[in-house]
Structure formats: C-alpha cells, structure tokens
Amino acid sequence: DNGVDGTVLSLRVYDGRLIAGGEFETVNGLSIAGVARWNGLSWSSLGTGLTSETGVTVSAVGVVGGDLYVGGDFDSAGGLPTRNIARWNQVDGWRPLGSGIDGEILALTEFNGDAVIGGMFESAGGRTSRNVARWTP
C-alpha cells in the first residue's frame, strides 16, 4: 500500500528528513498516526508517535531552536499526556509543552527564538490566550 491513507496538512524538513503532518492513520501500510518522517527511501514514525481517542490530526509542523514542534488535535505524544502540542528531538523523544492548548492548533512557526502558534483556542499553558500564543523554550 503506497502513500498516506488521509490528508497531509503540513510539511517541514527537520534533521535532514521530510516530516509530514496531517489527518492519517497509516503510511505505506504502517500504523503511523498524524506525523511521519521520510528519509528518502522509507517512512517511519517518530518514537511511539501520537495518539488520541478521536483520531490524531497534526495541522502544523515547525522547527524551533533545533527541535521539531507539532500542533493539532491529539491527546498524547510518546505515551505522555499532551494537549494538542508537543516537541520532539532525537535525545529526549516526545515532550509535552506545559499544560498544552485547549483547542486545535492550525499554524506554528518560530519568531525570535520562540514557538508561535495560531488556531482555535482560548488558553495556552493554563493562561488566557485567544487563538494566538507563544512558547519560550
């Protein structure tokens, strides 16, 4: 089975690999939900990946300070509870960002060394922040 079984919403290069984020459950027949990496020959997951009881969506993928950040709609990353945003690197694997975001993330970029996110949410890290927020690593 070639390709992704759903929609790809975001693409980014990280650590020499192409990262695809979206609304999918399998890539080339492998069980990889929401985010996958391509090394030029094959697809693989990042650690144990992302999970959600209602299906994983990764709408935004960005690189901030050398780490990969993914945002969207999901409950856990690498087996750790998260709320719609997580950070990945080769040393630490997946890590949550504080208490997360209370809604869906649709955009993510780096600005002045911080991760800046946009989407449909009311709070970020437990603080009121309507639809745009920043995270200082």
Short recap of the structure:
This protein is mainly beta and 137 residues long. It has strands at 7-14, 17-23, 26-27, 30-31, 35-38, 43-44, 50-51, 57-64, 67-73, 76-77, 80-81, 85-89, 93-96, 104-111, 114-120, 123-124, 127-128, 132-135.
Could you characterize what this model shows?
The chain has a 4-stranded antiparallel beta sheet with strand order 1-2-5-6, with no helix packed on it. A 4-stranded antiparallel beta sheet has the order 8-9-12-13, with no helix packed on it. It has strands at residues 7-14, 17-23, 26-27, 30-31, 35-38, 43-44, 50-51, 57-64, 67-73, 76-77, 80-81, 85-89, 93-96, 104-111, 114-120, 123-124, 127-128, 132-135. It is globular, with a radius of gyration of 14 Å. The chain has 137 residues and is mainly β. A hairpin with a 2-residue loop joins strand 14 (104-111) and strand 15 (114-120). The model has no long low-confidence stretch (mean pLDDT 94). It has no helices and 18 strands.
Strand order of the largest sheet: 1-2-5-6
Shape: globular
The value of Rg in angstroms is 14 Å
The overall pLDDT, averaged over residues, is 94
Count of beta strands: 18
What is the helix fraction of residues, given as a range? under 10%
Oligomer: single chain
Strand content: over 45%
How far the N terminus sits from the C terminus, by CA atoms, comes to: 39 Å
What is the tally of helical segments?
Answer: 0
The helix-and-strand class reads mainly beta
